[in-house]
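Handoff note, outgoing to incoming analyst
You'll be picking up this chain. Sequence as last confirmed:
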Amino acid sequence: MDEPSSWTFTGIALPDGRRRDLHVVDGLIAPEAGPGARVVDADGLLALPGLVDLHTHLREPGQTEAETIATGTAAAARGGYTATFAMANTSPVTDSGARVRALRELAAASGKHGPSTEVVAIGSVTRALAGEELADLDSMLAVGVRVFSDDGFSVPTADLVRAAMEALLPFDAVLAEHCQDPTLAGSSACCHEGEVSRDLGLHGWPSIAESVVIARDVQVAGYLGARLHLCHVSTAEGVEVLRWAKARGVRVTAEVMPHHLLLSVDDLRQSFEGGAGDTTYKVNPPLRSADDVEAVRQALADGTIDAVATDHAPHRPSDKDKPFPEAKPGMVAVEQALSVVVETMVDQGRLSWAQVADRMSHTPARIGALRQQGRPLVVGEPANLVVVDPSARTVVDRDRSLSLARNNPYHGRSLPDPVVATFWRGRQTFTRG
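Most recent structure output, in case you need it:
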């Protein structure tokens, strides 16, 4: 990886379609080329602000056989990201200010030059993710944490949701909710409830298990005037409740995952033909119906869903090499997130490149209160950017991933391969060989 230096991209397109020479000097967007600038002919290329992932599982500390901060952020940079929000479900859980500081120290020490993206700690809502009492929110707020989530579990009761929101409200911090009612979709639920789950004999995960939690939480947030963010919205019912809440002025935002934009429960069914099923397709919430896929695509296009996040969830092979119901849920996603958005949204005319910049950079940075990320590519701003080739494609090969994990649902698929290079604070953190 190169240290910060001078670059000039001649004739590069910006998200609004204008072409210009883009200069990077000492970590900033500059008005002119710096001394000894590396000049790149950018004809046919596009510059986007560095992508911001609100939902990443970096697994460190405690689960480093699956991923480390160094490998996870390298994979993120490969995907065009300059910031990754690290979920709290590590070992130990990030549930206090001391553990937030420890995570930051791990990140600073990772890799030869530190992490390949900014690493932003998400604090847990409840202590040890147990859903019984609030975590030490005050100490995490005091060290600057602004996003809190028990991802993997819903906050179990409305009174705990209310107590957490009341604690976060003075700081304008956000509760990011995993929407899964365990009385409707418990730990054994592993397939979208419907014809496929019945045919395969798998325990169903019904759409209403998502939407009833959304309905509860948006009403609490609306009552308090608090901020709520909905993780991995995956169903038409969830989108419907989200639209209802936004129409009433609730301060709610939402994200969708790449796999819910591209894949469906029919992909899971096909994987069972002649075999035991591909556990790479086991994810939580599960792959949904074609109607749900259409609903979340439309919601992302019209802004009802605010952002694309990845839910990058690396696992050891031994955690996936099990019968489908017993395998751990999750997919690696960060390297192909932009690829999937291009395939499903840009190439289908549903999103412009300016809207991609909004959904994958500007808005996630705003939700997560990052002041130096998601900025426009204008003079004086931090040089956090990704250089994109809109026409490039490749067949995804999981063995070429920069992640330690190989549970990649896109393996063997032809997808766009847009990321040419990524720069964080002017330092090149990825370049396509």
